[in-house]
Amino acid sequence: MNQNRPRRSSRPKQSRPPRRREGPSRPPADDPARLAALDTLRAVRERDAYANLALPALLNQRRISGRDAALATELTYGACRAQGLLDAIIAECSARSLTDVDPVLLDALRLGTYQLLRTRIPAHAAVAATVDLVRGQVGSKLAGFANAVLRRVGELDEQQWIERLAPDRATDPVGHLALRYAHPRWVARAFSDALGTTGEELEAVLAADDARPAVHLVARPGEISADELAAITGGDPAPYSPYGVHLDPGSGDPGELEPVREGFASVQDEGSQLTALALTKVELDGDDARWLDLCAGPGGKAKLLGSLATLDGGTLDAVEQAEHRAALVRNSTEGLSVNVHITDGRSPDLTPGFDRVLVDAPCTGLGALRRRPEARWRRGPEDVAELTRLQRELLLSAIGLTRSGGVVAYVVCSPHLSETEGVVADVVRRTGAQPLDARQYFPDVPDLGQGPHVQLWPHRHGTDAMFCALLRV
Ligand SMILES: C[S@@+](CC[C@H](N)C(=O)[O-])C[C@H]1O[C@@H](n2cnc3c(N)ncnc32)[C@H](O)[C@@H]1O
Asked: Could you tell me where the DSSP H helices lie in 402-461?
């Protein structure tokens, strides 16, 4: 046990989180919200479930709604996001190493610690409810352990824990900010490398991953305008994409909106829209009727590109390796001039000579961490090498399938330099493809840096951190 652990007698009087609201001194015996949160954390850990899919399904199945659903959602998503910080604090308060703690007990401790540090639930209620949960789900033998750990956690507030546990900001700014904003160090390092700073902008992008993002819709070209879509949905036209609409994060399930149900609109990050649109804006000499999306599933960009190609009398070939994802592409592009191929984009049996090709390659997804609560803890730095190999191979294939004078857009939802500039530089060296200044194809989007490639950022643009390089073949 760490010698520096705070003793209860030394607790400063003001150490409690300041914003507690009054609440029941004991949680109700039946606690569906916390049980749903615990079961979701377990599904995320054991089955690699996505919290934002598993929790709504579970709430629905158990008919949990209203305040219980809201509490379950806050606790689940909050504990998923903050996991690294919560674990560091729990480890400091636990006599056992976390690897020796029963995994369900650890999930419950994460929920309890989250309640103590980041909610206004009274400390005694947070501890009692978690201990009851442990007693019911893990067994009464471990309830005392949970109680002891959480009482120690409650001796300091979040700020004080960070001061105690985080590396010194002056000597290790990345390590400090990684713990403060609950990101793995390698992710904070990747953001820092891409931004070229360890200062305020790094802090801003890490903080942006914890903000609830607006829901972005895309209007289907030729069917509905962004203004009409905004009027119907009560949203606002997006600042940069002519097809985009932003909805308030709390405005309910966008899948229930009529234009989405009818197929006139879809959920799509504005950054994704902008990268697909950039490909369509590059000037071409000669033919412009054969477009290709080499990594199309689940079909967001294929729908946008397919709509534009169809309006112009062209076609889009959409390649996807995974069968179930190809089915999603087929579904989302129904009625458009889109041909879906289930095949490996590195060696598809397609006739070369495409005019415009999109490679929206599989990636670490570090650019969309705000949309998936558990995502930042799921990938590791060891994933990068394999992904960059695949990205390079797909981009080389795309260039081979493009006619001379045609254009390729290489897109990833990650700012990791190995996945972005590294892949592009390597392929340009091998093929002689000519990088274009992509910034000119993102009209009116500010803060695009030195070019030639475009890196969007949540804290600058309100989009996912999408990267886009445009290469003339
Ligand atoms: C980033 S996602 C594409 C997102 C899509 N463009 C959209 O906007 O909805 C990458 C896709 O590439 C697919 N993929 C992975 N390896 C592939 C390969 N070798 N050939 C073709 N598709 C592949 C994955 O299954 C995944 O659906």
From this structure: 423-431, 458-461
Q: Are the CB atoms for 453 and 230 separated by under 8 Å?
A: no
The answer on 293 and 365 residing in a single domain is: yes
For ligand 1, atom 27, which residue shows the shortest CA distance? 297
For residues 220 and 116, membership in a common domain is answered with no
> Is there a single domain that holds both residue 56 and residue 153?
yes
Cβ pair 408, 357 in contact under 8 A: yes
For residue 69, what is the domain's CATH number?
1.10.940.10
Question: Which are the catalytic amino acids?
Answer: 413
pLDDT at 51: 96
Cα gap 215→130, rounded to integer Å: 33
In this structure, the residue with its CA closest to atom 13 of ligand 1 is 295
96 to 145, 313, 380, 394: CA distances (angstroms): 10, 66, 25, 47
CA distance 465 to 98: 33
Looking at the structure, tell me whether residues 330 and 354 fall in a common domain: yes
Contact 233, 239 (CB under 8 A): no
Question: What band does 10 get if pLDDT is binned at 50, 70 and 90?
Answer: very low
Residue 375, domain member (yes or no) = yes
Query: The pTM is what?
Result: 0.92
Note the pLDDT tens digit of each residue in 245-256. Answer: 999 987 788 999
Annotated binding residue at 320?
yes
Query: Is 146 part of a structural domain of the chain?
Result: yes
Any binding-site annotation on 360? yes
pLDDT band at 146; cut points 50, 70, 90: very high
Domains of the chain: total = 4
**Residue 306 annotated as lining a ligand binding site:** no
Strand order in the sheet with 236-237: 236-237, 244-247, 215-219, 265-267
Please name the residues in contact with 29: beta carbons below 8 A apart, sequence gap of 6 or more.
Answer: 132
**ipTM of this complex prediction, to 2 decimal places:** 0.99
Closest C-alpha to ligand 1, atom 10? 362
Does residue 6 lie in a domain region?
Answer: no
- Structural domain for 417, as ranges: 271-472
